[in-house]
Amino acid sequence: MEQKIDEGLRSELQKQGIWVTSMQELYNWGRRSSIWPLQFGLACCAIEMIATAASRYDLARFGGEVFRPSPRQADLMIVAGTVTKKMAPQIVRLYNQMPDPKYVISMGACAISGGPFKQGYNVLKGIDRYIPVDVYIPGCPPRPEALLHAFMDLQRKIDGQKLTGAGKADHLKKTQASEFPVPEFGEHDLEPPANPQIFHPPEIEGA
Amino acid sequence: MTPEPYFFLLIFIGVAFVFPIAPLVLAWLWRHFFQPAKPGAAKNATYECGVESLGEAQVQFQSQFYLYAIIFLIFDVESIFLIPFAVAFTGLPIGAFVAILVFLLLLFEGLVWAWSKGCLNWAK
């Protein structure tokens, strides 16, 4: 099924002004060149995200400057900042409301693991407990360059997604869930504290 | 044979139909062949900044609210007059100062009057 055009022939044709492409490449090119992030910030990382979108770092160079105020039009969720337990259900619900294909960048130490507030009683210890994260950016907060790097990583990931076949992208599979259960406020913690289907923390050997 | 002078209108009508319909058809084909639709309870729910929506959108306010609205409006306008007064406070002649005091007194009287009439009590 997989028909790949010979790279030599392709560049030869290109020299003659004929551009050969495949549906998959065209599709991925379009998607990676117009990643619209959802416009919301949670803490100080959001300031770096704003700086990334503004003129000095200029996220528009990568096609990602169109921050959408509605999840209906967004492709990318940048979880920029500390996710409190009060905020977590809203974030999961917003993620659920985004149309497929959707991606998540977990920006900064807080969104990854709770960061400096990990020992606190009210901070979620990582947004990957409830929604699948595509790219993690370490830092506290990460600089705009780091966010740009994550953005480029995401573009590379989108570029590699298959349109057909067994290894096709998750959002194209009929059985792949598009929504994840929204946690509820329990007596002491969010219920459930993590979604066991997607949360697989690395285990320490010998522990 | 000369072409019909209004023939281009027909072409325009055709384009006007095809232009919006083509993307819809493309999207439908795309959904059919590649990306299955995945509706869900949260996805189809009303967007309320991530919070679950409560009740209806067509909420009616009680008519008693207009008294509050009018009093609010008066004092809202008063604050607009008070800002230039505060800015020019040190350079004001005594006459202007007295004038603004009279203005404030009138409004204050109005508030006392409205209060004594029971306008600030919520009528059930």
Order of strands across the main sheet of chain A: 1-2-3
What best-fitting shape of chain B do the alpha-carbon axes yield?
elongated
Query: What characterizes the major β-sheet of chain A?
Result: 3 strands, parallel
SSE pattern of chain A: HHHEHEHEHEE
Please report which band the strand proportion of chain B falls in: under 5%, 5-15%, 15-25%, 25-35%, 35-45% or over 45%.
under 5%
The structure class of chain A reads: alpha/beta
| Oligomer type | heterodimer
Biggest interface, chains and residues, is: A-B, 22 and 14 residues
Mean pLDDT of chain B: 87
Distance between the termini of chain A: 47 Å
Distance between the termini of chain B: 82 Å
Give me the secondary-structure category of chain B.
Answer: mainly alpha
User: Which residues of chain A sit in consecutive blocks of at least 5 with pLDDT less than 50?
Assistant: none
Number of helices of chain A: 6
Ranges of chain B where pLDDT stays below 50 over 5 or more residues in a row are none
Task: Give structural notes.
The complex is a heterodimer of chains A (207) and B (124). Chain A is of the alpha/beta class and 207 residues long. Chain A has helices at 7-15, 23-32, 44-53, 88-97, 108-113, 144-159; strands at residues 76-80, 103-107, 135-137, 184-185, 190-191. In chain A, β4 (184-185) and β5 form a beta hairpin. In chain A, α2 (23-32) runs antiparallel to α6 (144-159) and α3 (44-53) packs across α6 (144-159). Chain A starts with 6 loop residues before the first helix and ends in a 16-residue tail after the last strand. By secondary structure, chain B is mostly helical. Chain B has a domain at 65-116. Chain B is 59% helix and 0% strand. Chain B has helices at residues 7-33, 65-87, 94-116. The termini of chain B are far apart. The A-B interface holds A 70-72, 89-91, 93-94, 96-97, 99-101, 163-164, 171-172, 174, 177-179, 182 and B 34-36, 38, 40-43, 45, 47, 49-52.
